[in-house]
Design a protein that fits this description.
By secondary structure, the protein is an alpha/beta fold. It is 33% helix and 14% strand. It is built from 14 helices and 14 strands. The strands form 2 sheets. An 11-stranded mixed sheet has the order 10-9-8-7-6-5-4-11-12-13-14. A 3-stranded antiparallel sheet has the order 1-2-3, with helices on one face. Helix 3 links the parallel strand 4 (90-93) and strand 5 (152-156). Helix 3 packs parallel to helix 4 (166-183).
């Protein structure tokens, strides 16, 4: 299945959104937007569907068309296309599935073998080294060919806490630095961690990693309840120490907060707490808990889309006042993409067992979804990776071009059909029907559009409304 489109869309995509102020014309591929009245909407849609209708329009109606056309509303735009071919210059390594926490909603049953009885495993050093060799070599070749590649990227993540394999992480970083020096290609190291680290581990993190993502549930009580140590004790005090040291050292780090139904009303308070205690963080990322993994055996539940949206918007007001960048993965109106993540365009994630997956959330061979997302493995006999090209070809089809449920959604070039592991979950692509997350993505994307339009006048049909025809409502 191929996502490539060689022709631009015809007719141009033009959506009509509505809020309490009335209609909004929106052209997502151009990210153009304008408030309009119903008459102007009717004229715009008629012309977009059939430009020959212009001849039968009144002068006022033609003026509306000209105003929109001058701003690019009716231009045909090429569909976004992701990279073709598998030549990764970044790898995400899962050093271990062991974990020092027992988070109540962990998608991977960290520290417990994925909930499927699989053993606790640490990645062999050779697997990590060959991963780095592959991406560094690709980066060098692509740079030499004139592609805009500036480095190779090694991300440390996990279906457990990666720093539970601290000795391995040190060797990974040292090896990556040696390869970078030998090939004269810069290496970048990122890490995702629960932040419960020893002082030695924290020193190493600060000295060697370019950016860090910390999982923190926003308030001390939630952190201790949702993300306890394996012993059952609270984890906030140790995590707080880590984040304060990162702030002091000037390390770029973001916070990822998983929001349960029990927490949802506290989202604005979480922003205040983070702004007060960890100034200068890169971003605060809110995601509603997804009911999978250990969450299915706990009392944690996903907040309703309405509750999450309402409290996210309240938190956003606080965030803008406090200078905090607030994000939700499905609301990204400034991006034009055809895939939610790199799952269909060269994601290279290696599990502790040496399996290669296209999705962070699918990291065990015993997961039924591995049949779709696993596309390679480290072959001990040959000392290198082997990849299944047929699987790669299938993965390239996990893009919004093939999610026909999304065809008439104004968000489709922004959220790109959302996380494939969640919305497909083993079903065929043609059965994609979205999820409750779609309601959140649409509401928050509409809010992003509204905020950009707040200070701009609308486009109207002068004859119908008695006001000036004006295209300054276009963003």
């Amino acid at each position: 299945m191929d996502c490539k489109r060689t022709q631009p869309p015809a007719p141009p995509e033009l959506f009509v959104l509505r809020d309490e102020q009335g209609p909004i014309l929106y052209a997502p591929l151009s990210r153009l937007m304008a408030r309009a009245n119903d008459s102007a909407v009717r004229v715009a849609l008629a012309y977009a569907s059939d430009p020959s209708t212009l001849d039968g329009m009144t002068q006022d109606e033609q003026d509306v068309v000209f105003a929109l056309r001058d701003r690019g509303f009716f231009e045909q735009r090429a569909y976004p296309q992701h990279e073709v071919g598998f030549r990764p210059v970044q790898v995400t390594l899962f050093p271990t599935n062991n974990c020092n926490l027992r988070c109540s909603y962990c998608y991977a049953f960290g520290g417990e073998g994925g909930g499927n009885g699989e053993p606790l495993t640490t990645m062999p050093l050779e697997v990590a080294q060959r991963s780095i060799d592959l991406i560094a070599r690709n980066a060098k070749e692509r740079m030499d060919a004139g592609e805009p590649i500036r480095n190779f990227l090694v991300s440390i993540h996990g279906n457990g806490e990666p720093f539970c394999a601290y000795d391995l992480i040190r060797k990974i970083v040292w090896y990556g630095q040696d390869v970078a020096e030998r090939l004269e290609v810069p290496a970048v190291f990122n890490a995702a961690t629960n932040g419960v680290l020893t002082e030695e581990q924290l020193d190493f993190l600060i000295a060697n990693f370019h950016s860090v993502n910390i999982s923190f549930d926003g308030l001390p009580a939630y952190q201790d309840a949702n993300r306890p140590l394996a012993s059952g004790a609270g984890s906030f005090a140790r995590l707080d120490h880590t984040m304060r040291r990162l702030v002091e050292a000037g390390v770029d780090f973001g916070i990822r907060t998983t929001v349960t139904a029990a927490m949802v009303e506290s989202m604005p308070q979480i922003v205040e707490f983070v702004a007060d205690n960890y100034p200068g963080i890169e971003q605060l990322h809110f995601e509603p808990v997804w009911e999978c993994g250990r969450c299915k055996t706990s009392t944690d539940t996903m907040p309703s889309p309405q509750d999450f949206t309402r409290n996210y918007l309240a938190a956003l007001e606080v965030a803008q006042r406090r200078g905090v960048r607030l994000v939700f993965s499905g609301a990204r109106q400034d991006m034009i993409v055809d895939t939610f993540c790199k799952v269909s365009s060269g994601s290279f994630t290696v599990t502790p067992t040496g399996d290669v997956t296209a999705c962070y959330e699918v990291s065990y061979a015993s997961d039924p979804r591995s049949k779709r997302f696993f596309f390679g493995r480290f072959d001990q006999a040959v000392g290198d990776f082997v990849f299944d090209q047929d699987k790669l070809d299938e993965l390239s089809g996990l893009c919004v071009h093939n999610f026909h449920f999304c065809d008439n959604c104004f968000c489709r070039w922004h959220c790109a059909g959302d996380c494939a592991a969640k919305v497909l979950d083993g079903i065929p692509i043609e059965e994609h029907q979205g999820s409750v997350r779609c309601q959140i993505s649409r509401a928050l994307t509409l809010n992003q559009i509204q905020r950009k339009l707040d200070w701009k006048p609308a486009i109207k049909d002068e004859h119908a409304q008695g006001t000036d025809t004006d295209a300054r409502g276009v963003h």
